[in-house]
Amino acid sequence: MEAEPRAKRRALNLCQEHLRKVVEVVRKTVQIIDAFSANDSDSVIRLYGEVQKIGDEIADSKRAVTQELIEVGAILLNREDFLRFTFIASEISELCKGVAFRILTIVERKWDIPSDIKKGIVELSSATFNAMMRLRDTVFALGYGSPQVSEKAREVELSEREVDNLYRKLEILVLERNMEMPKTLLTRDVIRLLEDTADKIEDVSDATRILALVL
Question: Which helix (H) or strand (E) holds 106?
Answer without folding.
Answer: helix 79-108
